[in-house]
Amino acid sequence: MIEPLRTSSQRRTTLAAIVAAGALGLASCGAGTSTDTDATSNAVDESTDASMMSMDSSASASSTDAGVTPLGTADIAQKTLRPEASSQLMVSNVRVGSHEGVDRVVFDLVGEGEPGWFIDYTDSPAQQGSGTAIEFEGDTALNVNIDGTAYPFELGKEDPDIGTVDGAGSITQIVSAGTFEGRSQFVIGLNEQQPYSVQVLQDPHRLVIDFPQG
């Protein structure tokens, strides 16, 4: 069947209808695209806000830890304490830190029992057993003997091989002089004698020597 010819007026009416329908379709598509973009933008904004909040929280935590309170009562006197009879400990690591108000040396401990110690200042530290002079940086040394310790193999541990640890603040360095007959020896180098304190802390188990500053 042949479609009848349309008049010019009819063609204009039909064309107008097509144009109007097309415009509505474009508007509808544009609205959908805008919604998707807004959703993506909101997701990015929320992610950024969460990230910034996390950074702010971390910064607050760091600033809170700016100062460290020295432990115990500090002086330059010799300090001794007998270990528990059944102690079988090992110094697994040595850490040094300089904080506002205190320089700190931490001896991490593993094993069983509680340590003892014999600690005193000397200008010429010698290795226990052999008597060999221990070289260190500084003008004086705090000779630290931690009692109640064992050889690593006795505890089924590998030798931590601590060696020499770099210092911080007023501490020049820490030298590990080995273990002999239940005693582990360390030398803390300093440029002058300073008051110090000794404390044992738990969780994790560690012996802490503090040098208050200021």
UniProtKB/TrEMBL annotation:
Keywords: Signal. This is AMIN-like domain-containing protein. It comes from Corynebacterium alimapuense. The keyword DNA damage does not apply. Residues 90-211 form the AMIN-like domain. It holds the Pfam family AMIN-like. It comes from the Bacteria. Residues 50-70 are annotated as: Disordered. Residues 1-31 form the signal peptide. Residues 50-66 have a biased composition (Low complexity). Gene3D superfamilies: 2.60.40.3500.
